[in-house]
Design a protein that fits this description.
Blueprint (H helix, E strand, L loop, with lengths): L8 H11 L4 E6 L4 E2 L11 E2 L1 E2 L1 H7 L6 H9 L3 E6 L5 H7 L5 E3 L1
Parallel strand pairs: 1-5, 4-6
Antiparallel strand pairs: 2-3, 5-6
Helix pairs in contact: 1-3, 2-3
């Protein structure tokens, strides 16, 4: 847990990012980022380098909950989704704009 009742870890991550005035919040997960469809079910799924919060909410990308998306959108904080298991993932997230998907 995060010590915040009624908040998921996703929403709490955005909240903490806002509290420390972070430029970007990172979500390391087991996928490379956001795709137009589930790439395990649809080999034609397109990797999306960048999406807006509005698109993420509209398309219901399941990478984070809608409260986290809404909070991030309201406060204009960037969110990077990336595969934490990729080689040198944290270094790549810090130094390579094209690593993962950015939600703005």
């Amino acid at each position: 847990g995060t010590g915040n009742p009624f908040f998921t870890t996703d929403t709490s991550a955005i909240l903490r990012g806002l509290q420390i005035k972070a430029h970007e919040v990172w979500k390391g997960t087991n996928v490379d980022g956001i795709y137009s469809a589930d790439p395990r079910k649809n080999p034609q799924a397109e990797f999306l380098n960048e999406v807006t919060y509005a698109q993420a909410l509209e398309k219901k990308y399941g990478i984070m909950d809608s409260a986290a998306f809404a909070l991030g959108s309201e406060h204009n904080i960037n969110l990077r989704i990336f595969n934490i298991f990729a080689p040198q993932a944290l270094e790549r997230a810090a130094h390579h704009e094209q690593f993962g998907t950015i939600i703005r």
